[in-house]
Amino acid sequence: MNYFMTIAQIAVAASVAFVWIFRIHNVIKEFNQFGLNDVTRSFVGFAKTVLATLLIAGIWYPSLTLISAVLMGLFMVAAQYFHFKAGNPFKQRIPSLILLLLCVYIAVSAANLI
User: Fold this and answer.
1) Contact, 13 vs 4, CB < 8 A?
2) DSSP category for residue 87
3) What is the torsion angle, in degrees rounded to the nearest 10, for the CA atoms of residue 53, residue 48, residue 50 and residue 56?
4) CA nearest to 64, candidates 49, 52, 74
5) Are 59 and 8 in contact (CB under 8 A)?
6) How far apart are CA 72 and CA 64, in angstroms?
7) Burial level of 49, CB count in 10 A (0-12/13-18/19+)?
8) Is there a contact between 75 and 52 (Cβ–Cβ < 8 Å)?
9) How many CB atoms lie under 10 A from the CB of residue 25?
10) Where are the alpha helices (DSSP H) in the chain?
11) What DSSP letter does each residue of 54-76 carry, written as one string?
12) Residue of 59, 61, 64, 94 lying closest to 79 (CA atoms)
């Protein structure tokens, strides 16, 4: 189980990094569609990048994992809300839904290790 948790942490962190570094044009488009300003987008990008880093650090320092996974999961819940509010098709909600489920798994696993 610990092995899958590590894979999940890497998957979430890598996905967030990929989207916020290489797919930033999509992020800008979505935040505009959601009616959110540049300051909000910058804050979310910074926070998600920090949380992704903490998820990776949590592989070696497990005490960082639970709070990082919970907070990242909350960002994914917010993403689901804004996609729903904007009327986006389910296909656009799938990535954040998968990351949300992985964050739940990571958080539950981390809580069981405490």
Assistant:
1) no
2) T
3) -10
4) 52
5) no
6) 12
7) middle
8) no
9) 8
10) 2-22, 24-34, 38-57, 65-86, 90-113
11) HHHHTTT-GGGHHHHHHHHHHHH
12) 94
Is the pLDDT assigned to residue 46 strictly greater than 90?
A: yes
pLDDT in tens, 49-63: 999 999 999 999 999
Distance between CA atoms of residues 8 and 103, nearest Å:
8
> Which structure tokens are listed for 42?
């910058």
Whether the pLDDT of residue 81 is over 70: the answer is yes
Q: What does pTM read for this prediction?
A: 0.95
C-alpha atoms less than 13 angstroms from C-alpha of 9 in its C-beta half-sphere: 28
- What does the block give as tokens for 11? 């998957």
Q: Name every residue whose Cβ is closer than 8 Å to that of residue 79 and which is 6 or more positions away in sequence.
A: 93, 96, 100
